[in-house]
Structures are given as structure tokens and as C-alpha cells.
Here is the input.
Amino acid sequence: MMLVLILAAALWGLGMFLRTPVVARLYMIGLLYVAVLFVMFALPDGHPLRDSLGGSPAQWLILGGMVALIAIYRKGLLRVRSRAAEVEAARDAAEAPAQVGPFSEVELERYARHIVLREIGGPGQKRLKDARVLVIGAGGLGSPALLYLAAAGVGTIGIIDDDIVSLSNLQRQVLHADARTGTPKVASAQAALAALNPHVTVRPYNRRLTAEIAQDLFDDYDLILDGTDSFAVRQMVNEAAVATGKPVVAGAITQWEGQVTIYDPAGGAPCLACLFPEAPAPGLAPSCAEAGVVGALPGIIGSVMALEAIKEITGAGTLLRGTLLLWDGLDADARRVEIARRDDCPVCGDI
Here is the structure.
């Protein structure tokens, strides 16, 4: 028997060396087994060849039976595993959120309070899902704006900022957390928005917005939210937005006061240069770091920016086009100032 087992092992090893299929190797060993049984039954007792193979076919029949049982058991086990995989797949498919039109059942429940609003409804929520909004700055104004845009279901949200989260940000920049200090703001924002709403796509751009990239970047989005605190950057944003025909929801804050408007010459509204043709004199528009800002103020102004973006996308209500909303947090006073395009505007006058 040992000689046959060695021969079978040699056939298997030769098959591996020649890279023959496993089935072919099994066939060769099976033919060897059949040949052994033929010898055991064809030759008489006492024949030298039969004696060299063990003398009796019983042991070979037992060996063949054991191999057959193992093969049957393995085949049955594979069938059980396959059936279990089919059942599990069917269960997962049954538990997966069903699609109802463009929304899953989970999304329908998530946005239910929007969908019941007459001014938004299902069509408006679908427009939010299809919308692409770029937010410039993930700081004081960007934090609440981003949170509410993601919560509202804006399908694609871009964030561009080259700053990192610092402890001094956390007094007002509610998008970030103490554990994420020292990390890029766009990465912190992406983590926060993913935790809030996994059904939206967040595109982080960890870099400074420059005139060289602004127009190409704006072309990928339907609406721009400007939450920067530098007038020079606002001018650059305005010029790129006018060149690409994109509306800009713009906000600004200092100390206790804030303002929001929509710049959109393509839609008949003025641009930044119509309202502020020249940069403010040094000291007249200090940054938050220089002048300070009360922590809740960016929440108010940033939320208004998000609300205007939602209205712009869904077509609900009256927009702040041609209107500057001024908020005085110290005296809880709000005022609206009508603003118009200037024909001699150096940026949008030729539109």
C-alpha cells in the first residue's frame, strides 16, 4: 500500500509542478486507485503483485469509502455555506433602505420636516440633493453654514480653507472640536459633516483660494458661500463669481454686528464692487482677531447664509438679492438696506 501512496503523492506533486488543474490530478489518482482494485480482483490469491499491494482488496475498499465520505461531506458543507450566503444576502437586501424615487426611506424620514413644507416639498428637497455648493472658509461663518447645509441634504458640499483648527477658534467655530485642534479645518469639517449626515458628499480643498484656481473651482458648483474675513479675498471671490456667473451668498461679522447679502449680477443683483468699489481704509474693517467677536454672532449670520442658500436652491421665499441685511446683536436690532447695481461698476458694469 505504501508504494501506491507514494506513487499517488508523486502524481500530485508532478501535477503541481506542471500546473495541471486540480481536477486532472484527482482523475490521475482515481485511475491509479481503479488500477489497484482491478489488480486485487483480477489476480488470484498469492500472486506476488497482489501480495505487494496488501493481498486483500478490503483495505483498499475501506480507503476508497473513507475518501468518498470525505468528498461527500465537503460537497455538502460547500452547499450549506452557499445556501447560508444566499440567505444572508437576501436578508441584507431586505434590511437595506428601500428607494422611493430619488430618496431612500432613511432620507425621507431625515428630510420629512422639509418635505412637508409647502415652499420646499419633495421637488425642493430633490433640488437640494442635486445641488453643489462651495463654502469658502470653514471658520466662524462657515461652521454653522456647513452644518445646516449638510443637515438640509445639499448633495455636494465643497470646502476650501488652508487653516488649521486652533483653541482660539472653538469659542465660535462650532463645527470643530477640541480633539481636532492642530488638524486642517477642512479635514475637521469633513469629519463633522460625515457624522451629521452620511448622505451628502463633502469635497475638502486644503489650500488657499487664489485667483489662478478660483474660476475653475467655481465652475464645478452652482452656488458660492463666502465666509472669509479678508476684504482682498472677498474681492477675488467677487471677480471670479462674476466671471463664472455664479451667485454668492456673502456674510461678514465683527464684534457684535453682522451682515448678509447675495451678490449676483447675472441675476440682476449688484456685486461686491457695486457696494464697496474700494477697499476700506486701514483700521475701518478689522478682523475678528483684531477687534474680537461674540461667539454666538457667527452662528446667527452663518445660519442666515445657509437659509439664503436653501432658498436660492429651492426657489422658496424672497431672497436677499439687492438687499443688505444688517444685524446688531448688542441691541437685537435688524435692518434691511436696499442696494442696486452700478452701471459704472468696474467688475460687473459690462454684464
Summary: The longest strand covers residues 248-254. The chain has a mean pLDDT of 86.
